[in-house]
Amino acid sequence: MTVIPSIPAPAAAPAGRGTGPSEPRHPRPDGRDRYTIGEVASLTGLTAHTLRWYERIGLMPHVDRSHTGQRRFSNRDLDWLAFVAKLRLTGMPVADMVAYAEMVRIGEETFDARRALLERTREDTAARIAELRDTLAVLDRKIAYYHDAVAASGKD
């Protein structure tokens, strides 16, 4: 088994303001940032059905509505959806994401619980990365074996 050093946690940066390497700038400036569900679907790669489901299960903290009842998403909603996408990539269960969203709604008194949840998720993610690195090493050895076998046979 390969021992992989701990992956350092990234430095905190303001979410979604184009300050980090993977944080795109918002398409519209704050104050003029009203997006339809179709626009958010296009921007995030999520379907409108998924966005409605996120709202229904409590994963979207609060989505404003127009005077006609249509959802109007903001830059803050885009930031939240980008964060949820990262949580999904970690393999965090939806129930944990919903619990995290509820803690965010409750406020600062849940900081310890939120931190603990994210720390557990980070540990799980680091373990998965280590497993994937081991898997890559196995694949690399197999690829090298077949490369060498083909070269030795003269059929290259």
UniProtKB/TrEMBL annotation:
Pfam families for the chain: MerR_1
Region spans: Disordered: 1-34
Coiled coil (UniProt feature): 115-142
Record's keyword terms, sorted: Coiled coil, DNA-binding
Domain HTH merR-type, chain residue ranges per copy: 34-103
Protein's recorded name: HTH merR-type domain-containing protein
PANTHER family: HTH-TYPE TRANSCRIPTIONAL REGULATOR ADHR (PTHR30204:SF98), REDOX-CYCLING DRUG-SENSING TRANSCRIPTIONAL ACTIVATOR SOXR (PTHR30204)
Biased composition (Basic and acidic residues): 23-34
Organism placement in taxonomy: Bacteria, Bacillati, Actinomycetota, Actinomycetes, Kitasatosporales
